[in-house]
Design a protein that fits this description.
There is one protein chain. The protein is an alpha/beta fold. It has two domains: 25-114, Leucine Dehydrogenase, chain A, domain 1 (Rossmann fold, 3-Layer(aba) Sandwich); 136-257, NAD(P)-binding Rossmann-like Domain (Rossmann fold). Helices cover 39% and strands 16% of the residues. The strands form three sheets. A six-stranded parallel beta sheet has the order 1-11-8-7-5-6. Strands 3-2-4 form a three-stranded parallel beta sheet, with helices on both faces. Strands 9-10 form a two-stranded antiparallel sheet. β5, α7 and β6 form a beta-alpha-beta unit. α1 runs parallel beside α10 and α2 (39-55) crosses α10. The chain binds NADP nicotinamide-adenine-dinucleotide phosphate. The site of NADP nicotinamide-adenine-dinucleotide phosphate has 25 residues, from α10. Residues 137, 160-163, 165-167, 184-188, 191, 204-206, 209, 224-227, 257-258, 261 line the site of NADP nicotinamide-adenine-dinucleotide phosphate (NAP).
Length: 274
């Protein structure tokens, strides 16, 4: 069994981004908009800032209070869309409930949408056009598999979870690489039999769902899930200790997809379209 070491691979990607940024005449500038006081969001934003600093990408965080009105946020995004010195915009999710997330995401210019969540970028990916940006987590998963030379074409892939930010783009990206993809969710019957036939499993659920007898021998298991268990330890969707004996490759939590997402986001943030 080989560990898919996201920590090491992400460092390599960050170094490559740093080198590319150092050669760019016009430097990228990422603006992260954070609305409210969510403590997990604050940590994510700090980590993104740290990675931006490490790669030479200028980053600015705009903090807006929890009671910011939707229109105020939309106006801020419009201002950032128009600013020549801003090359990337990221609105940290989740947003307070009184703000319509879809309206906000749609307002971001697709050419500055480093998260790859706008309808134009999602649509481009779905119809086989090159999006300006690929969603960071899914792109990070493929970067990790590619680093270990894991073949994708023609493989049977099971993606568990169908969120807009992970599951759905993951499916599109595997299809683009000519895999045969099954997408599972909370209404899926007999998840176990589907996992059992998969060469590659990507789990993005947020609960312990992939257990030992489910997996195919020598398969590749990528754990996107990250949450705290009853002992307050960070853990993933996969029962690592039991599953790892029978698989070919497996990503740990922490130290797997998490750092890859940040590296992939910095890769996106180094691109300049306007
Ligand atoms: P989400 O929007 O809550 O989606 C969870 C998905 O899991 C849904 O599609 C849901 O199905 C499905 N699901 C729930 N219970 C299930 C079950 N028993 N069997 C099969 N599918 C089930 O979550 P998300 O935003 O995609 O995130 C998923 C996990 O990944 C979370 O732990 C999150 O923290 C983590 N994450 C990690 C990174 C990273 O960089 N490592 C990035 C993003 C997210 P329905 O659609 O039917 O409800």
């Amino acid at each position: 069994m080989i560990i898919l070491d996201g920590k090491t691979v992400s460092q390599k990607i960050l170094n490559e981004v740093k080198e590319n940024v150092s050669k760019q005449e016009r430097k990228p500038h990422l603006v992260v908009v954070l609305v409210g006081n969510d403590s997990a969001s604050k940590i994510y934003v700090k980590n993104k800032q740290k990675a931006a600093w490490q790669t030479g990408i200028r980053s600015t965080v705009i903090e807006m209070p929890f009671d910011t009105e939707e229109q105020e946020l939309l106006d801020k995004i419009e201002e950032l869309n128009l600013r020549q010195d801003v090359t990337g915009i990221l609105v940290q999710l989740p947003l307070p409930q009184h703000i319509d997330k879809n309206k906000v995401v749609t307002a971001i210019s697709p050419k500055k949408d480093v998260d790859g969540f706008t309808p134009e970028n999602v649509g481009r990916l779905a119809i086989g056009l090159e999006p300006y940006f690929y969603p960071a987590t899914s792109q990070g998963v493929l970067m990790l598999l590619d680093e270990y030379n894991i073949p994708i074409e023609g493989k049977d892939v099971v993606v568990i979870g169908r969120s807009n930010i992970v599951g759905k783009p993951m499916v599109q990206m595997f299809l683009k690489r000519n895999a045969t993809v099954t997408i599972c969710h909370s209404y899926t019957h007999d998840l176990e039999s589907k996992i059992k036939t998969a060469d590659i499993v990507v789990s993005a659920v947020g609960k312990k769902i992939v257990r030992c007898k489910m997996v195919k021998n020598n398969s590749v298991i990528v754990d996107v899930g990250i949450f705290r268990d009853s002992d307050n330890h960070l853990t993933g969707d996969v029962d690592f200790d039991y599953v790892s004996d029978s698989v070919g490759f497996i990503s740990p939590v922490p130290g797997g997809v998490g750092p890859m997402t940040i590296a992939s986001l910095m890769f996106n943030s180094s691109k300049i379209y306007q």
